[in-house]
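Supplementary Text 2. Reproducibility record for the structural model of the 97-residue chain.

All settings were left at their defaults, and a single model was retained for analysis rather than an ensemble. We include the record here because the model underlies the residue-level annotations in Supplementary Table 4.
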Amino acid sequence: MSRCPQCRHENPRDAKFCLECGRRLALSCGACGTELPAGAKFCKECGQAVGAAASPIAARVGAPPESYTPTDAGTPGTRRRPRVRPPARVVGRAPGC
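Retained model, structure tokens:
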């Protein structure tokens, strides 16, 4: 059992969040988010000191881009095709049937 530092509720040892107040119980790296074992001083994945703020560059390494829209605009000799929608499907009987 592990005790929540916020509400002092006894939680199962494998709980990641307190069952009473919802506080995160598992320790995680501030730079890469890797879950760490209790008592860790450094991240086992990126080496960041536990509790240290991640530098802006370190936090972005390996992170997905904030926004990405692939285009052919920069490729010579290519044009974007307009999106063509299929015709609407008619449901029901045709007039005169």
